[in-house]
Amino acid sequence: MTVAVTPKMSPAARQMLERLVAESHKLNDDTQAEALVQKRQEAEKRLLAKGFPTRKDEDWQYTSLLPWMQHAFEIKAPSAEPSLEVLQPHLLPDTAIRLVFVDGVFSENLSAGFDLIPEALSIEMADADAIQTIAPKAEADAFEWINELVLDQGLALRLEDQAALEVPVYVVQVQTQSEQLTNLRMQVTVGENAEMTLIQQYLCLEGAESVFVNDLAHLHLAKHARLKQVVMQDLSLNSFYFNHQYFQQAEASDLSTIYLGLGAEISRHQNQVALTGTHAESEQNSIGFGAGKQIVDSRTETLHQVAHCNSRQLHKFVLDGQARGVFNGMIYVAQDAQKTDGQMDNKNLLLSNDAKMDTKPQLEIYADDVKCSHGCASGQMDENQLFYAQARGIRKAHAKRLITQAFLLEPLEAVSNVKWHQWLATQVMRKLDQAMK
After folding, report:
1. Is the pLDDT of residue 437 over 90?
2. Packing angle of the helix pair 142-149, 11-29 (nearest 10 deg)
3. Measured distance CA(265)–CA(236) in Å, rounded
4. Of 72, 262, 328, 346, whose Cβ has the fewest other Cβ atoms within 10 Å?
5. What are phi and psi for residue 324, nearest 5 degrees?
């Protein structure tokens, strides 16, 4: 197959794009829906014209995609499903409406809690029309267009007005094969005065040493809606994770979202939160842990478009070895968004001399009656803290671990459910223990 590509692309980029386009053509051959084929073809044109970002692009200057380009990812048919006994140790230890995807395909056998689904909650899989209504914007980056290029699997959740889910919707994406491309698109709608919790988990089982997960999600909160979301990414250390999330909040809606970036060789998690109704509130927290040569990238863009909205953010990274962390946060306040209160804080702890953190908190304000702030700080462990702990009989290694743990777990205070909080903290501690042996 010959693909016409821009001459500016490197050979590695060209080969990766050819492989992805080939995957798209395979899907087109098996697709009856002409509209879906057209979407993929449009994405192919965009990617061929624009190519992949390089480190000359401002948003990618700290992240080289060359390691990602050296893999031959493809959409593989699901392998034999793992048994529930194999999966169980990784799962949330609480009652939930559990939706499990194995290598990107929904598994009814591993899912659970169907009897807990109320009439007010609609769940559509795979060829849900809703996911096809999402179209990347012209300025979307390459990974959103890749999601469009190989769009096939999707999940659409809709909670009707006035409904409140008593248990969380728990979406688990399990990878079982190496060189697997998983490309899920999700749409979530929370109706007026409705309330739900969404927990998402990404994990690799034995045999999935290197995978490429590329998700896109649009989440809409109607008037007075409340959504709590937890995203935990714990892919294998040779994997690649890219996830774009777009939130839109109507009047007096309340969003709380937290991201835990624990795995993957290169990961980038991006939130765009648009506060479009007055008195809307959002809280975005994240935890990033990297060791070895991991790159942990977390980005937020918070758009205050109307008056009387509040936003809060706390992002914490711990980096060991030669790991690199990237945080880029923007609070934008439109001219009519008077009485905005937006705060963003980023703190980073470097456990080795070779670890690096690049952080860029930004404010762009066009209203004159607002209260906005941002802050960031990066540094190594305070020797006085270590000395204080050692003076009380705590061995240095244990003291170092305790201080790191206390630093990193602070964003989890937003998770009020004791079981969930303990489960998430355990996952973070496990990573710390592996790195600080």
Report:
1. no
2. 30
3. 8
4. 72
5. -130, 135
The answer to whether 408 and 287 have CB atoms below 8 angstroms apart is yes
How many Cβ atoms are within 10 Å of 418's Cβ, its own excluded? Answer: 9
Q: Which residues pair with 219 in a beta bridge?
A: 188, 247
Q: How far apart are CA 185 and CA 148, in angstroms?
A: 9
Across the beta sheet with 226-234, the strand order is 105-112, 97-102, 169-175, 195-204, 226-234, 254-261, 281-290, 310-319, 341-350, 371-380
Cα separation, 406 vs 403, whole angstroms: 5
- Between residues 333 and 81, which one has the greater pLDDT? 333
Instruction: Yes or no: say if 53 and 266 are a contact pair by the CB < 8 Å rule.
Output: no
Q: Which of 271, 172, 290 is nearest to 227 (CA)?
A: 271
In the numeric block, which tokens belong to residue 137? 């914007």
pTM of the entire predicted model: 0.94
pLDDT for 304 equals 98
**Among 436, 427, 378, which Cα is nearest to 402's?**
436
CA distance 53 to 213: 18
Separation in Å, CA 315 to CA 146, 266, 337, 412: 28, 18, 24, 10
Provide the pairing of β-strand 240-249 with 195-204.
unpaired
Which of 115, 116, 184, 148 lies closest to 43, judged by CA? 148
Q: What letter represents residue 10's amino acid?
A: S
Residue-level pLDDT at 136: 83
